[in-house]
Write a structure and sequence with these properties.
With 290 residues, the protein is an alpha+beta fold. The chain has seven helices and nine strands, in the order αββαααβααββββββα.
């Protein structure tokens, strides 16, 4: 298992290798600044609040990769006890370095490193989903720039091109996101308030029966079931988008989990959604300025 010094050396090597970052946009004097606003349970949060959540998760993810599982769990518990506001100044750099390490580790090592997690979470997910009752985790992200269709086209393009960097850098809890074909993804991530990583497969081309209502105010959408490796349904997503009259667009993001899971799974996943989609929207806006 690599030491902390080796972990940092790996990130420096990866950064120096010329991997293209998904950078935060930097507005010039003639370019409007991107403003992102998150709404969770009706409460408004600015970008800083989401970055603070991301900063805490970056620390946990680094520990998970850098140490044996008991140490990772210890770090996870530490974040639950730490109420201080973390420093967000290094988040942009840290998210790139963490993604670099995951990419350099590769699929085989990451799967091996997280195999014990998946061996626990997969049967637990199947058991929890057996009653076929679902509860939702919802978050809304508003962007001052871009369009709903433009963002979804960009996002679908990342999946079609199997752009693993764009997927990994969006959230520290993403460990492996691989697209075997257009519209489908293999995901290994720490979902919501879970303590262990889970593996699931999403097919955005097969969404019949997804138990999330369609909102007519959000006419653009993507949806699909989350399944285990043997095809068992363990959750679903329906993300819906609309353009705003004053410019920009809104993303209504919804994931359902088995209703038997602890409430913290649903509340914490609201922040997970806010983090990944804020970073994906930033990547989309950055791409339009390239």
């Amino acid at each position: 298992m690599p030491s902390r010094r080796k972990f940092l050396a790996m990130t420096a090597l990866a950064t120096g290798a010329g991997l293209t970052p998904l950078a935060l946009s930097r507005a010039s004097a003639t370019t409007p600044a991107l403003e992102l606003t998150t709404y969770i349970d009706g409460q408004r949060f600015d970008r800083t609040a989401v970055l603070q959540w991301e900063a805490r998760r970056l620390k946990v993810a680094a520990e998970r990769l850098n140490h044996h599982l008991p140490a990772a769990l210890s770090a996870e518990l530490g974040t639950l006890l730490d109420d201080s506001a973390p420093n967000v100044e290094t988040v942009a750099r840290d998210r790139q370095q963490l993604a670099d390490v995951k990419l350099r580790m590769g699929h085989t090592e990451l799967r091996d490193r997280l195999a014990a997690d998946v061996a626990v979470t997969e049967p637990m997910s199947v058991l929890a989903a057996a009653m076929d009752e679902w509860s939702a985790s919802r978050t809304r992200v508003d962007s001052s720039l871009g369009t709903a269709q433009g963002f979804l086209d960009w996002f679908d393009g990342r999946i079609e091109q199997n752009d693993e960097r764009a997927m990994l850098v969006a959230n520290p809890d993403h460990y492996l996101i691989n697209s075997p074909r257009a519209g489908a993804q293999e995901v290994i991530e720490v979902t919501g308030g879970a303590m262990l990583a889970a593996q699931f497969f999403i097919d955005y081309t097969a969404a019949a029966g997804v138990p999330i209502e369609e909102d007519p105010l959000y006419p653009i959408q993507t949806s699909g079931w989350a399944r285990t490796s043997d095809g068992t349904k363990i959750g679903a997503v329906r993300h819906q988008f609309r353009d705003n009259p004053a410019g920009g667009f809104s993303a209504q993001l919804t994931v359902v989990f088995p209703a038997t899971l602890p409430p913290r799974m649903f509340t914490e996943h609201q922040w997970h959604l806010a983090c990944e989609f804020s970073n994906w929207v930033t990547g989309y806006i950055t791409s339009t300025r390239a």
